[in-house]
Amino acid sequence: xxxxxxxxxxxxxxxxxxxxxxxxxxxxxxxxxxxxxxxxxxxxxxxxxxxxxxxxxxxxxxxxxxxxxxxxxxxxxxxxxxxxxxxxxxxxxxxxxxxxxxxxxxxxxxxxxxxxxxxxxxxxxxxxxxxxxxxxxxxxxxxxxxxxxxxxxxxxxxxxxxxxxxxxxxxxxxxxxxxxxxxxxxxxxxxxxxxxxxxxxxxxxxxxxxxxxxxxxxxxxxxxxxxxxxxxxxxxxxxxxxxxxxxxxxxxxxxxxxxxxxxxxxxxxxxxxxxxxxxxxxxxxxxxxxxxxxxxxxxxxxxxxxxxxxxxxxxxxxxxxxxxxxxxxxxxxxxxxxxxxxxxxxxxxxxxxxxxxxxxxxxxxxxxxxxxxxxxxxxxxxxxxxxxxxxxxxxxxxxxxxxxxxxxxxxxxxxxxxxxxxxxxxxxxxxxxxxxxxxxxxxxxxxxxxxxxxxxxxxxxxxxxxxxxxxxxxxxxxxxxxxxxxxxxxxxxxxxxxxxxxxxxxxxxxxxxxxxxxxxxxxxxxxxxxxxxxxxxxxxxxxxxxxxxxxxxxxxxxxxxxxxxxxxxxxxxxxxxxxxxxxxxxxxxxxxxxxxxxxxxxx
Length: 603
Prior knowledge:
This protein is of the alpha/beta class. It has helices at about 5-10, 15-20, 160-165, 180, 185-190, 200-215, 235-245, 270-275, 285-290, 300-305, 310-320, 350, 395-425, 450, 460-465, 485-505, 550-555, 565-580, 585-600; strands at about 45, 50-55, 55, 60-70, 90-95, 105, 115-120, 125-130, 140-145, 170-175, 225-235, 255-260, 365-370, 385, 390-395, 430-435, 440-445, 445, 525-530, 540-545. An eleven-stranded mixed β-sheet has the order 3-4-8-10-9-11-12-13-16-19-20, sandwiched between helices. Strands 1-2-5 form a three-stranded mixed β-sheet, with no helix packed on it. Strands 6-7 form a two-stranded antiparallel sheet. The longest helix has 30 residues, at about 395-425.
């Protein structure tokens, strides 16, 4: 999807996971494992595939974990559109939410060694959470996990509190990741059995299949197929943006929420063969990986490619990843592609400005105030550490400045720009937010509020109501007893707005009482909801008055930067941020070139 910024920030939808990686010793991690689900007779349901039974979560929600929504994409079905799932004759026990698509495990995931290839190609399962019955005609919220489209799974987090407090059904599907989910090759297109098999976006086709399954089956769980909201964070939000533009997803959902996303796409040429120049590289192309494996063009037949051991294929992508900016065992395949099948060939940025380019449904766009600040934590130009365990900003003002401009660029390019375009082009309302919570605890002696702030992915626990998952706070440093009272109040407020949006398409209208009206964004007033605790700045509406021009002027005059190296690094990250959201780097690339060149000149 992107470049070194993605490696640093999009490795996981729980940004806390990577951030904590450098902050703690393994012995500090949470010891307790997840509660194993137990079949509950009250959860027996009949769906199109047969009868199934689920469990009751510790919070009291009913849950059905690991339901197959498509046939296993293995063997001849690798790199084909998902096929209908088989029926079963016996009662199916939907009790396992740990299944995942192939991915490299991170260094601190329970049960895995860092860098281990985890999961399976047989991975097209989804999870459902619902208030205990009987319930009927409840709105449905389909959560699309993040993780750079190379990591994560639908069962990582427990949205029981969201389902119970907002009286909604939550669905969370897996989808194929990395090269299994995004792969382009003419031989695959030529051997397609149906038009969708010629796509390069198999992960998106999986999500579309999950939405179709939801349409067909969600009533059995008490859901209303005519009120479906899709929502996702990071790569999940980018996938939401793609689904907003896909002709194959029309009428499958009725609202969308993009948390820290954007509208980036690649061309088919780029996805299959690579970029025209190395300077334009945004990931590894399919044929580049095949060459890395020593498979010549003549040998690249569908049968040969589908027979490649998964471990070898992933290793090829790992061998081709850039050395700079890497964390852990990440890979960087090209993902969302304008293939003319799932997505129109003109690409998402062009579709965004067209009146008919996206499905005309209510949308919420939002980012976190300090999306990219933590990228500086692992840069010894800005920080020093003690034994790689405790981190300190060398100069607090410079550290805050380096993350401020890329983060503000993300809001400008992924919220203000798209919201204005959609407000002008569509008839459905558009809403915008910024998440400002930065009340983390200390890690050892590191000040996390300064180092991390309202960073990428920090809002997920607030939206889903899950602060206990090892994927949101693996070491217990972020969500502490000290910040619990205010944190839970903010989470309740955010879940109420998200829940109302699922019920009515308007976050201020619905069954949940909200004390502050969330006004829609218009091109003239650009109203934005800011989420924070009452003890700090409070949740409030603001009128966004920023612009790229004003941001660049502020950058040039900002005396918190110590030198040209500070400005070089901040401008480079701002340029990468703009590209990642699907737009040009604008003035940031020129500024980066200017200050980076000056920083290398002899004094």
